[in-house]
Amino acid sequence: MGLFNVTRPTSFFLTGIPGLESSHPWLAGPLCMMYTVSFVGNAVVLQAVRTEPSLHAPMYYFLSMLSFSDMAMSMATLPTVLRTFCLNAHNIDFYACLIQMFLIHSFSMMESGILLAMSFDRYVAICDPLRYATVLTNRVISGMGLAVTARSVITLFPLPLLILRLPICRSNVLSHSYCLHPDMMKLACTDITINSIYGLFVLVSTFGMDLFFIFLSYVLILQTVLAIASREERFKALNTCVSHMLAVLAFYVPMIGVSIVHRFGKHIPRYIHVLMSNIYLFVPPVLNPLIYSAKTKEIRRAIVHMFHRLKM
Length: 312
Prior knowledge:
By secondary structure, the chain is mainly alpha-helical. The chain has a single domain, classed as Up-down Bundle (Rhopdopsin 7-helix transmembrane proteins), CATH 1.20.1070.10. It is built from twelve helices and three strands; from the N terminus they run βααβααααβαααααα. The chain has helices at 24-51, 58-86, 94-127, 132-135, 138-156, 158-164, 181-185, 193-226, 231-239, 242-264, 270-295, 297-311, and strands at residues 11-14, 91-93, 173-174. The protein is globular, with a radius of gyration of 21 Å. It is found in: Cell membrane; Membrane.
């Protein structure tokens, strides 16, 4: 059966939050606030790194990549989320849904890869500081950014094709205000084993491996820090990792929570599943610029200088 001869709906119906439909107008305000904080916060970080010479260093280049990824993730969900909650417009074209699904999963994987690259940056800075400048050159940083992007595109390119091969005839109603692969494949009226296996393979081989290597880098960092004689120097070294550790927690804790609820929470109300997914997608882009602005004095100083120049 060809891809274009498969039974499928012309559009999907985006639910929003099941069971809380009457509260959608009230939820629109907080969602708009979260998008505003995300866009403004990440844009300010990007501009500060671009204009402040003191931030032209590997750590802040990776932070720029993280901010760009967060803004792109917000842009990928913004159109359908605001249409669903603000305009009560729930329909999305089938192919537009496929594109949004690919973008959401891609930018999420990019964020995971960037967090791994940032952990490598902290590892080299603390465990091998004399080689820091020679290991993390601009060429290496650019290569890591391209590798993270290429991995996301290549790994996730099959997802839309795997959905296209499925006849979708059970329903056209999705559980969220955006399109995700697990949500779409469940509407198929045929065997979805290939989709499930590939989805699990992607999860383990990318997000799972990223988290494992981030954990390993911090084990090595902790070993190095504990070998430092001075308590003040130990504290100073660990303090440079605090922002990154908080960003890792903000990204992976909701993600693991979503996975646990999805696998083992069959009897939990559906709106809990949806709220957990929303937290996973919306909270990291909001928290990351706040975390780095609050915990990194160089970023704070650069932002103050930037606004001072604008005022002048």
